[in-house]
């Protein structure tokens, strides 16, 4: 099939590369000309395992190309995905300026039937607005369809998630749209949830909000574990084996971050309110997440007593492992907060250093974890990168000023570290 993806960010690039890999001819569009020039030369602006290779291979096979021209994309493809950003506005609502712009430009360049598919996470009823916008700006009477096909991929495992999805959600209003999208995804052999557009939009809100709530739930349990002297990892293991609960997304830590959960929760709370429903559970989940960061900061302060002048080593800056994404990363919030109290920071991340350098001023960026812990009064592991699990703590014991470890992701065995002479502080254990 001939496909275009408008918006070459995370979702757009992964979707474009993966659909090309499935044998389609794909045009990826972005209005950032530098980004497009770079991509055409094989420069991928984000770190995502396997993405660079997948893009190069499909560019070589002439199944994937990049352009800044929506006109070229609309003329050359029957199915057009919209995957532009929908950032949060001050009031928590999603900013849909990008979506509206793209819908208008598609309409202005449409000469025959096109299927326009929302891929970005958008508020329920955006499909209606896209349809209305296209109908308003279209030059002559051309038949078109709008569909919703939300993406569930996670950063760090995005290609695997795309190629092996638990399900594919398709929200449509016509048989033709259903047939086109079912055919496109047939090679993935995944269960299809075919529904109306609004239900498809709500599936995405509900799934992300549920997962964020699940994390906040276990983080709240971790607080009680802390008070009573229980181990949240054991509690989560015992809960997770119940098939109705499931063991994933039950890891307590310093809170969730990233470009999706915080923004999607805000958007769902705001949409529900606008529609007349006060989504209290989600407000509570959001509060627990904010409070979790403060809780970790309090733990650090309690352990250090005086923060001013202390050297704090932070291992991990990205919001999760296997990505260089630092958007809403709890590690950064923590650094900013303790920096205002006079702490000095030495930091290291396997992939996110470049992005962090642009966002964090006045901290020392180190070449590796051992460099970052040298002379530290306290080490905080903020992201569970696999390489941190294998650190040589005997060596670290000799490098630090004070053997104090805050395990923000509960990745170490407390007994082992205590035996090595560390003061070990985990989350809810
Ligand atoms: C999420 C959704 O999982 C995905 O379906 C959607 O398309 C986009 O948003 P992503 O933000 O890439 O994906 O990462 P995810 O693996 O879901 O983690 C989100 C945050 O939750 C991270 O900060 C992570 O550290 C945290 N998390 C996750 C926990 O604190 N505990 C857990 O058990 C799981």
Architecture overview:
With 429 residues, this protein is an alpha/beta fold. The chain has two domains: 2-195, Rossmann fold; 211-425, NAD(P)-binding Rossmann-like Domain (Rossmann fold, 3-Layer(aba) Sandwich). It has 18 helices and 14 strands. The chain has helices at 10-21, 33-40, 51-60, 70-76, 97-109, 126-137, 158-163, 175-185, 197-228, 232-240, 261-275, 280-304, 330-339, 353-359, 369-373, 386-389, 393-399, 414-419; strands at 2-6, 25-29, 64-67, 79-82, 114-118, 144-148, 168-171, 192-195, 311-315, 344-348, 364-365, 378-381, 404-407, 423-425. It has a six-stranded parallel beta sheet, sandwiched between helices. α1 packs across α3. The longest helix has 32 residues, at 197-228. The chain is globular, with a radius of gyration of 23 Å. The N and C termini lie far apart (53 Å). The relative contact order is 0.09. The mean pLDDT is 96. Bound molecules: uridine-5'-diphosphate-xylopyranose (UDX). Uridine-5'-diphosphate-xylopyranose (UDX) is lined by residues 151-155, 208, 211, 215, 249-251, 253, 256-258, 260-261, 319-320.
Features:
429 residues, alpha/beta, Rossmann fold, 2 domains, six-stranded parallel β-sheet, 14 strands
Strand arrangement within the widest β-sheet reads 3-2-1-4-5-6
Compute the number of structural domains. 2
Instruction: Give the percentage of residues in beta strands.
Output: 5-15%
Determine the number of helices (DSSP H or I, runs of at least 4 residues): 18
Hetero groups: uridine-5'-diphosphate-xylopyranose
